[in-house]
Amino acid sequence: MTTLDPATSATTSPTAEESDESVVAMWRTVATQRGDAVAVRTPAASISYRDALTRTDDRGRAIAAAVTEPGRPVAVDVESDIESVLSIFAVLTSGHPVILLDPFLPDDRKDHILGLSGAQRMSPADIEALPSSNEPLTVPEPDAPAVLIFTSGSTGRPKGVTLPHRWALGMALDGATFMRFGHDDKATALLPLSFGAGVDCLLMSLLNGSTLLLWDVRRRTAGGLIDWLRHEGATTVHCTPSLLRSWLADLGPDDEIESVRLVSTCGEPVHSADVERLRATISPAGVFCSWSGSSESANLAFNLFPPGRVVPQGPVPVGTPASKKHVRVVDEAGNDVPAGATGEVVVESRYISTGYFENLELTATKYTEMSDGRRRYRTGDLGRFDDEGQLHLLGRRDDAVKIRGYLVEPIEVEAALRALPWTVDAVVTADRDAAQLTAHVAVDPDKWTPSPAEIRTALAKTLASWMIPRDVVVLTALPRNERGKVDRAALPPAPARSPEPVRGPTESTLMHIWCDILGLETVGRNEDFVSLGGDSLAAAKMLAELRDRWLVDISTADFAGTPTIAGLAGLLDAAHRDRARSVTGATIIRLREGTGTPVFVMSGAGTPAASLVPLAREIQGDAPVYGLQAHGLEKRGRADRTIRAAARRALKDIASVQAEGPYRLAGYSLGGFVMLEAAAILQGRGENCESVIILDSRFEPQLVKRVGGRMTEATGTDGPATSPDRTGSDDAESAPKPRSIQILWTRLVMRVLVATAGWWQLPTTLQWNVFWDLGRHQIRRHRPTPYRGDVTLIRAPENPDHPDTWARLVTGRVNTVTVAADHHAMMRAPHVTVTAAAVSAALDLTDSEGSQS
């Protein structure tokens, strides 16, 4: 257990250890001692302690004269600036409790706070404009209300928590004991002052005589922050874990700030990966501090990690209880549980909140007055002490849910999700009535955008089956409220499920296969494979298992038309009666029913048309959507050797659906080249193409040179035939290097397989890799026919090709749209929604200004 001696603080300031007074008295004492030292500095201004004290006293008298109702709260519009700091201390000096109004709060939330509290609202400018007064100032009592903190209300309406003046003294002592704030410190608050943790940081630093550096991340962003911290010689930095993650994402070893001795986070659990990333960037030689608490308990615990201390994997324990806080872990009867056992966390102290503002009933359920003057607060959090006396928080008591008789804590599942290589952020919620979990996972598209089924399968390697969420929603980012916390009310709902029980032995067997592949406990006969999180690879794996078990061959094209257990069972039973039914060489499938002009989309190299289902479902309107794929990919048949041959075959498939134009053509990756060539052929026949859409197709250097295009250093380095990294990790360096003869043999075998692609069926993964390689060969040898028309190019940001190269293949306009996802992720949820929106815009009006980048 880490302990710190307050005597080692750089300087000595009055703290709650020696005094029992109001925050106003302590502020005056410190400000008088520090005199001309800088109290607060922003990128725009600074103020000394002496001037700050003079102005807060003057403004405090003016407020006392203007707000005559005793005890009436004053609500101040607070920004991260000097005027707001002065206003906070001025209200405290006036004897009125202060409410910190966040400018980013929705108006209805502000109105609710003002209505509930009956507060007088003032901005710093309003306070400055008040007439001066000689109103005598009285020093508030230690237990008088100082601050009303209104909870974020992420799961309901906000409620006010009353913090007494004595609370600030505990803050000062924590700042000296754990963070060692002293006169030489320059403490950087990246937490808005309107946050509970923001005002805590203000008090912990200023009441210990430090200089407070304010940088408003929400208005300034993090651009230029590193340079400013270096210029100011910042010694400590304080923020939320989510801000830390986003800030560090683009930083490297060259961004170290040598003056920083400590970085702390608060507000949410912090994970080992966050600490390791911090050590690799801003503060390799500094201390990391995990700092936890709540509006009701104030500071709860601190956990400091100097450079040599090992960081445990997963969520970091919250650590050592805060100053003058007796923290217990109790059972339902209120008895202490032994180390290692889980119970409710209870805080006993005089330095916590006094209750909920004008809500005696709620206060009575959570607070108990003790005979020695302390208060007991039942946090509602589950926790445990380890053998070293470190406190671990395990989530809300109300969040725990019994699943199959086992008590599951969502925070444990969140830790497992965060350990996955793709995960950026995650939150798990529990439905007690349904006894199930739902996971919302934000992923890094630069690594891989996994399907829900992949996520559940990965979790099964570390979690018991009853701990795996039934529903997984993949997002680009978790929604957060104005306080920076996950806004649970804004989390998109998981797809509604109303499963029908399976019928008969065939459906029962299929259900068990689906459950294994999708990582689910049960599946209804009417539930859609894609909606349950299955992707094209999962479908191929499932169909391969059917082939091995029943010796029948059902194509992904057939399955895409009826992707339910009931539908698949029908195909399977029919295949037993007539095997010929399952033997089809179809290279076009209907992805979506509809009316009007169809949309034809060609899949990429080595991927079946069924992989386009997510895109087809998201395209706006009700037009039918058809997917095309390479000949021989799923059924025996010699593959087309050139893009032009593939285009002619695609036109035959299209003609079977639509006899004459105008046509709507789109192609993904290799399919973009095929459909562009098909459009040129149609044009030569006198036909008209209404829309031609290319989805992140990529050139090979040979093609760029052949058409006289512009090369880039990265051209051809990440071609459309590249197999996606499904693990999210790069083991190239750690993997054993094959001998040269093995490399030559592998290349020879692949060359033979590509030359005979489609002649026989290979295992699914190998078959797809062969057609990926074939696609790259086709692009290298392609001799395109120029298309005299307009084209929409929808591309990923990391597409290595020069956009001007397309002008060598297209004589009309090339309208370019960039979507924020990589080559593979743009066709998968959640990013496919943005891709489909761009496709929809191009189908409606290809030169729409609103769709261009």
TrEMBL record:
SMART domains: PKS_TE (SM00824)
Amino acid composition bias (Low complexity), ranges on this chain: 1-16
Names of the cofactor(s): pantetheine 4'-phosphate
Domain of life assignment: Bacteria
Annotated Pfam families: AMP-binding, AMP-binding_C, PP-binding, Thioesterase
SUPFAM superfamilies in UniProt: Acetyl-CoA synthetase-like, ACP-like, alpha/beta-Hydrolases
Region Disordered: start-end pairs: 1-21, 710-736
Descriptive protein name: AMP-binding protein
Protein species of origin: Gordonia westfalica
Lineage, uppermost ranks: Bacteria, Bacillati, Actinomycetota, Actinomycetes, Mycobacteriales
